[in-house]
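job 3f2a | input accepted
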Amino acid sequence: MIQYLNVSKKYDGDIIAIDDITFQIDEGEFLFLVGSSGSGKTTVIRLLIREEKPTSGKIYFEDAEVTNLKRKHIYNLRRKVGVIFQDFKLIPELTAYENIAFAMEAAGRNDKEIQDKVPYLLEIVGLENRFKSFPYQLSGGEKQRVAIARAMANNPKLLIADEPTGNLDPDSAWDILQILSKINSWGTTVIMSTHESDFVNTLHKRVLKLENGKIIRDDKKGNYFEDLDEFSIKILQKDSDEAVKVEVPLEKEVLVDKVEPEIEVKKPTPKKKKDKKNDLDEKELLAKAKKIDISEIKFSAKVKKILLTEGYETLADIMESGIGKISEIKGLNDSEIKRIAKVITTFVNNL
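job 3f2a | predicted structure (351 res):
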């Protein structure tokens, strides 16, 4: 779907932003673009949407050579790409509804299409009751949800999220990730640049890491850090692939049926010093977890009752089942599932 072939970008003063990179992205893929500030992530994105041209090399989007497009064709390219920015870029004088409608009007959509689809998009991102709100009346997370709905208004084949959670609190950032993951599960290709290691380690999608404009790592199912504890990943990610899969048929001009974002489990961040848990095998870890009864954990009375009713008596029972299965239990809300996930993370980290 996307190809970068020996692409370099230099600025005045011999500043090298991108240095001879080659890679491709397949249709339907979810790619995390990671690296420190100044590593070249934003330049990669700007080149793809033709905000800039490379100094050398070629970039292809589907059958079009992006680097060689004439001005009149750049607009057609951008109609196929939705972009979400860290600072939202909403029009302050327009309501949530009007911000999305404006993007559709600019793409030539008629009034009937706009009236039908805008409420639908707002429902998908959980803002069906805020359609009359102006940006100043919305929280950061809500603004980003509007921005996602706007980016998806014209059914793009590619969704680019450039540090979309950088200005958000952890809970709002987590919700945004779930929406992006869900959109990807419906068939849209997603490129997300981020510094959030927990997000990368949770989804376990492809990771392309840049450093000084060069690709230093490209893992199909990667983590933010190469040395992340693999056993912690195994425990925390168990069944997570099932948790994000949703079978929803896509129609030509319809995005998706609304499905609430699923909850994934955060993996532990790596520790610089050798951790005691690295010496534990699965049996040893689960044996320790088996000694911790559900009744001893600081869950609410409601959560304890539900877990016990479902046959979960110890922390080991939860870990063996996997958070994907736990999230399917009726009666548990998002915050309660996150709390259960956090307990597992804390347990693994503190061994």
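job 3f2a | The two ends are 44 Å apart (CA to CA).
job 3f2a | closed
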